[in-house]
Amino acid sequence: MINSYEKNYDFVVVGGGITGICAAVAAARNGAKTALIHERPVLGGNASSEIRMHICGANSNMKKPELTEGGIVHELMLSNKRVNDSFNFSIWDAVLFDTVKKEKNLTLYLNTTMHKAESENGIITKIECYQLTTERHFEITAKFFADCTGNGTLCTFADAGFKTGSEAKSEYNEPHAPETENNNRMGNTLLFKAIDRGHPVKFIPPVEVIHFTEEQLKFRKHAPDISPEIMKNITPEELRVLFGGYAQDYGYWWIEICGEKENIIEEYEDIRDQLVSAVYGVWDHIKNGGEHGAQNYELAWVGMLPGVRESRRIVCDYMLTENDVLNNRRFDDKVAYGGWDIDNHTNLFAFDKKPSFIYPVEGSYDIPYRSYCVKDFKNLFVGGRCMGASKLAMSSTRVMGTCALGGQAVGTAAAMLCKDNADDIRNVDIKLLQQNLLKDDCYLPDVINLDAADLAKNAVITASSEEDGYPATNLINGTTRKIGDETNAWHSKPLVDNTPENLLIRLEKPSIVSTIQFVFDSDFNTEKKITLSSTRQNQQKIGVPTELVRDFKVELIKDGKTVCTKDIKENFQRLVKIKFEKTQCDTVRIDFLNTWGDPCIKVFELRIY
Predict the structure, then answer these.
(1) What is the SS3 string spanning 31-50?
(2) Less crowded by CB within 10 Å, the N or C end of the chain?
(3) Could you tell me if 45 and 325 are in contact, meaning their C-beta atoms sit under 8 angstroms apart?
(4) Angle 499-503-508 from CA coordinates, rounded to 5°
(5) C-alpha torsion 388→391→397→400, nearest 10
């Protein structure tokens, strides 16, 4: 007997990687009845405990800290920093799971595979799914759908157009495109984790391995750049310093296999089998193929689910190109941004080539809304690495931090469309979408807070103290991060004798207030991502960022009398929204009691609704 169920939602997201999580959470928080369909037992995709890739983004591993992603992806990282000082990916899985499960408008389907989609006249009418653990079948309908599968599976089932491989130079006039199109693509990778046990550990391969020589791996760093003679006399601590943490304690991204057939997706299982032999083969070479400084290292974990870089790219209303990326293109309909270099990988077995060819991106570029709108479809978005982009542009936009921003934009847009009872994803009010994204702490270059409903914008703000260059007026200038020499934040003078610092906000006129919202300083100059790499771990500080405001009190005042008070304890987030029953007041007072360690109170933005 088949258990079959019919379900209906406002918005359905297929794919529970970082992109899908951000899309689904954004939609649910903005009022849309949402479902998130994910075929794995844990959320996070390439960032989950099954694959364990860390989230990279526009800041390019802290080379451009002012471009660090805010919004939901930053919230997830801060939640993780509160509970996970040991970089445990199982704890990270739980952070993602908890974030999704606690959203009242969001239904999560884990272990659930979408196996069919039906469409008519450019409209997805339903999808069919099977949940392995319960043996239940689902027929799911919705007003809007988002394909966040990475492979563009929903779009392909619905017969949307897609591209694979590299476009010819003539198609977009991209400077680094080949003269003729080809099917070259980046491959899949298995990561591993090794631990220094403090004593020699032997290694016997548990599987049949691919044997590698030093000559074959000459372009792929797998040992310190020191001579064998020096290596024999070096101490373990000196070895760790020379490695910089970027070697035997962390799997190699360059163990990458691209397949040989036309469709890399169809080869996934075969590539996985080759990767298993390759990973253990590389480790066998490191341990048993000469001096690599790994005598005391032991494999602690090896992945079995390959991470994917590239497969299909879905044809959208606008295809982002290498020219857009390298020229820092600005778009009127921007809803996300990127800044990762164009990072185009080669095959592990291309021994005579470097593992990656990089074309630097200075600063950032915009990603337009149109690059998430599937061409010829009215109710279908696409997010993640398979968004509308050329091969070369995708080599930058594919990183998860950038994908997360697109996911949040898509989810926010879907909720807006549902509220407006719109029937086409192109009917969204772009300016309002941009303002809503800013309100939820998504940065958009050159876009500032213009929300007419924000009562703080016309209020008079006074502070108990101000550091030079950090006036309280910055709280309402519309920008929530340091940009160049513009601080865009209020800093108090250092707290003294547990005396609170405060802000007094006098509204333009008595008004009904229901929400006070803050964007606190969470230290964009310090890395926060979950990672296997000790190099990236060593960039971080233990625990919650010390700059974040920890305890504070908000008072609503009318005619000199306090009419409502909220005490906030143990805050660990950058974006904080304090909800009240609708209350008339003419003044708001905030007393900041302490931070997580910084002597000053640091706030980028205050909004009042």
Answers:
(1) CCCEEEECCCCCCEHHHCCC
(2) N
(3) no
(4) 160
(5) 100
| Residue range 367-388: mean pLDDT, rounded | 98
- How many degrees, rounded to 5, is the angle at CA 261 between CA 162 and CA 374? 10
Length of the chain: 609
pLDDT in tens, 43-53: 999 999 999 99
CB-CB contact of 580 with 515 (8 Å): yes
CA dist 389 → 19, 182, 316, 317, 380 (Å): 16, 16, 8, 10, 16
Q: What is the CATH number of domain 3-166+311-439?
A: 3.50.50.60
pLDDT tens column, 166-215: 999 999 999 999 999 999 999 999 999 999 899 999 999 999 999 999 99
List, in sequence order, the alpha helices (H) in 378-464.
Answer: 391-397, 400-419, 430-439
Strand partners for 490: 603
Q: What is the DSSP letter of 575?
A: E
Q: Does domain 455-608 have CATH number 2.60.120.260?
A: yes
Report the alpha-carbon distance of residue 102 to residue 25 in Å, rounded.
Answer: 10
Domain residue extents for the chain: 3-166+311-439, 188-308, 455-608
Predicted local confidence at residue 293, as pLDDT: 85
Measured distance CA(209)–CA(255) in Å, rounded: 13
Cβ neighbours, 10 Å, residue 379 = 22
Provide the token pair at 585. 């007041």
3-state SS, one letter per residue, for 48-117: CCCCCCCCCCCCCCCCCHHHCCCHHHHHHHHHHHHHCCCCCHHHHHHHHHHHHHCCCCEEEECCEEEEEE
Give the DSSP letter of residue 279: H
- Angle value at C-alpha 496, between 493 and 498, nearest 5 degrees: 125
Domains 3-166+311-439 and 455-608 share a fold: no
The overall pTM is greater than 0.90 = yes
